[in-house]
Amino acid sequence: MQGGSKKKMTGQHWNSPPEKMVATAEPKKGGFIHKMSVFPYQKYLYLPVIFGVLLLPLCAQAGQRPAMSSAPLENPSSLPTDEPTEQGKLTDLLQILEESTEIATKTKLNVDFVPGMVTILTGDDLKSRGVNTVQEALNLVPGFTTSMAGPMKEQVTVRGVSKQLSGKIKFLINGMQANDTSMGEPFYIYAIPMDLIDRIEVIRGPGSAVYGEFAYLGVVNIITKTKGNRIIGQYGSFGAVMGGGVFSYTPPKEQYGFSLAMSGWQSDGGHVRSGLDRDLSGAPFNSPANSHLYAPGKVNEGISHRSAFLSAYHKDTSLVAQYIARGDGERFGHNDVLPPEEDRLSLHSATWLVEGRQNFQFGKEWQTTFKLGLFRDRFDMDRAFMWPVGMAPLPNTISKYVNEDRYYGSGGMVYRGWERHTISSEVQYSDSSAWDSSGTSLGRSIFGFSLQDQISLLEPLDVTIGLRYDDYNQIGTTLMPRIAAVYRLSNNHIFKAQYGEAFRPPSYMELNPNAQPVNGTPGNKPETIQTLEAGYIYRDHERVGRITLFHSELDDVIDLVVTGGGARKYMNTQNIRLHGIELELEAKLSKQWKVDSNISYVDTKDVASKQDLAGATDWLFNMGLAYAPQDDLLFSLQFRHVDSRYREPGDTRLELGGINTLDVTANVMNLFLPGLTLRSGIKNILDASVVYPALMNTYPNDYPRPGRSWWMNLSYDF
Fold first, then answer.
1. Which residue from 285, 423, 480, 489 puts its CA 20 to 30 A from 312's CA?
2. Average pLDDT over the chain, rounded to whole?
3. Which are the contacts of 88, defined by CB distance < 8 A and separation ≥ 6?
4. Is the peptide bond before 76 cis (omega within 30 degrees of 0)?
5. Residues 373, 377, 383, CA angle at the centre, nearest 5°?
6. Phi, psi for residue 116 in degrees, rounded to 5
7. How far is C-alpha 522 from the chain's CA centre?
8. DSSP 293-332
9. Segment 528-566, tens digit of pLDDT
10. What stretches of 88-228 adopt beta strand conformation (E)?
11. CA–CA distance from 620 to each of 40, 119, 154, 552, 616 (Å)?
12. What is the DSSP string of 535-549?
């Protein structure tokens, strides 16, 4: 998809790898990327001015500079603190919390003091809003929106940019990389239930200087619950049933413990009916030549999801083991042709992540962390529908598998012995093998080294300088820099600025010339991005407001290209320029009321065509309202607006209109007995139309989504 335009309108196979045939990509030399456009701030001045006027009543007299946290480095899975009481949870949901995070620097700091733009979403708050999965949670991050990656899978759009099978966001689960080399996109994580999640930490913008590959448009770290004991059950629309629990044990005054969070759920996905599908005959839609197609018809959106997260530790030694399996119906079809009506789940994935960690503390100045890990991913497509019988000479179904094994190790160090400096570095090595049923395989080894210095340059000014070097056996070397500054004028006023670069290597599917139905190109190069950000934060105990301006340049973007004869390929064809603004406001209005909102504007252009990027939207808006009329009772409203989305060049359809949804949720704590919580809600209570965009010449009426739905959740803490 290149630039877009608007029209004005009123069974799984566990296979061993074949003999390795390494797909190679054209080498690319590393180095700093020097080209930087002047930030086009002039056209957006009126927006921060308006937001600043709104903030004036909130601002207080400048106070003293807050102290930076100097807590030692911790594993992300150990971040959750002691489980609060139910009454404490309700109180926290109405507070303006000062969160700490390690995601931006791997050293713990207050979220507003870290370089770059970071969002923290807490699990209990999300659940109280009616958010049930990771996919739903990401819609609340400024500049983020989720939709469908083609006819079958989910995708996340960040600041107007999204592509199928792209891996443009680095996903971590308890600090462990979830992205695979095969497709780059860990679809299985989107359906993790919120009941198992303690918090989600998000970097908005490049993160390769710290996290390397895939940390291109952002980084998302999903941290599961490791404290307390809870059993959970949920039931809702479309036959959705979920059960699970969190179980932990830490003896008093002992230095060991373990936790297990697990769940399973399934749903028929919703009563969705498609419009007409892709025209395979070359005849007009609704013609006799297309009379044997299954569209319009029922869409199979069934899903089954299983997950388990185990952590155990003894003193400074820990083990984390995670398993996630998912099965899906074919939705709108592997080839944008609607399959016959059935309930079979033909897409299956199973992923294991295992990591051992060892920490060493040498006085107050040195800390080191060593990690060894295994990532194993199995994806199986069982007789997926391609086209009706007789439509083409080839078989009308396809069965294939894509598998990957990855082994890795790392050693990290934090040194605080040099006054005004916190120096951290990490060495990493990974070796992966990906192979599929076509007989093609990809072997990828990566050596990476990162170095970072956090400098208290002046009393109110902190500067972070970082650099990461990666050496790939296929694509050569990359060198990704970052420089950031945080200026704390007072306890209330914080200013930020950052320049960073990032890259995304092509996935196995984008390199494999035998992939189906879209072929890869062995010569594809890594995508690169350069981003300049500036921000202002005002906060006190009752409210916090944030303004972020950003400008990014994306080069060598891999896009889906239609070649001669109608074949589709992944190729480096696109350069993108984008700039915009993100505004956030959270305020406690009284003891009973809290409001939060964010609004994002982005202008995303294809450089060659000068047109808006297909699938992008100019405006996103979220607003949440929480009301606690009495102890143990909380109501919430969540409103979301997605502006109209752009079409591809040459697409004659009208622009796809905006989306407006309203969710309502009620939470009752300590129902009948302490620790028993009942939550219930209605999503899209006004039953607004929700439609995701489809590619040109596929589904003319795009991908409709389910309408109004309800859910009920019962949990017991013991």
1. 423
2. 83
3. none
4. no
5. 175
6. 80, 180
7. 27
8. S--SSB-B--EEEEEEEEEEEETTEEEEEEEEEEEE--BT
9. 999 999 999 999 989 999 999 999 999 998 887 777 666
10. 100-101, 109-110, 117-122, 144-149, 153-158, 169-173, 176-177, 197-204, 218-224
11. 20, 16, 18, 18, 11
12. EEEEE-SSEEEEEEE
Question: Across-strand partners of 476?
Answer: 28, 472
The widest CA-to-CA distance across the chain, in whole angstroms, is 80
Residue 303 has pLDDT above 70, yes or no: yes
The residue to which tokens 């290209």 are assigned:
561
Contact predicate 667/637, CB 8 Å: no
Among 355, 372, 356, smallest CA distance to 429 is for 372
Q: Quote the tokens at residue 701.
A: 């009426």
Both structure tokens of 19:
């003999």
The tens digit of pLDDT for each residue in 69-128 reads 333 333 333 333 444 444 455 556 777 767 777 787 777 778 888 888 899 999 999 999
DSSP string, 452-494: EEEEEEETTEEEEEEEEEEEETTTEEEEEEEEEEEEE-SSSEE
* 609 or 439, greater pLDDT: 609
Who contacts 252 (Cβ-Cβ below 8 Å, separation ≥6)?
A: none
- H helices of 56-106, in order, are 86-93
Q: For residue 240, what are its two tokens?
A: 């959705």
* pLDDT greater than 70 at residue 3: no
CA distance 328 to 331: 8
The values of phi and psi at residue 203, to 5°, are -95, 125
Looking at this protein, which amino acid is placed at residue 592? Q
509: which residues sit within 8 A by CB, 6+ positions away?
Answer: 165, 182, 183, 184, 402, 515, 518, 520, 570
Rounded distance, CA 171 to CA 184, Å?
10
Q: What is the pLDDT of residue 654?
A: 86
For the CA atoms of 713, 627, 717, 241, the dihedral, rounded to the nearest 10 degrees, stands at 10
- CA–CA gap between residue 376 and residue 304 (Å, rounded): 20
* CB-CB contact of 58 with 545 (8 Å): yes
Torsion of CA 159, 164, 170, 173, to 10 degrees: 120
Closest alpha carbon to 40 in 575, 576, 602 = 602
Q: Which residue has the tokens 């589709």?
A: 568
Beta partners for 432? 406, 444
Amino acid at 424: S
Instruction: Give the span between the Cα atoms of 117 and 497, in whole angstroms.
Output: 9
What pLDDT, in 10s, does the model give residues 467-509?
999 999 878 899 999 999 999 999 899 999 999 999 888 888 8
Q: Position 355: which residue type? A: E
- The pair phi, psi for residue 93, each rounded to 5°, is -65, -20
Q: Which amino acid makes up residue 393?
A: P
Average pLDDT of 426-445?
90
User: Which amino acid does the sequence have at 707?
Assistant: G
Give the least confident one: 54-68, 343-357, 687-701: 54-68
Cα 502-504-507 angle, rounded to 5 deg: 170
Sign of CA dihedral 436, 310, 104, 315: negative
Establish whether the linkage from the previous residue to 296 is cis, with ω within 30° of 0: yes
Taking only Cα atoms into account, the Rg of the chain, rounded to an integer number of angstroms, comes to: 25
The residue length of the chain stands at 718
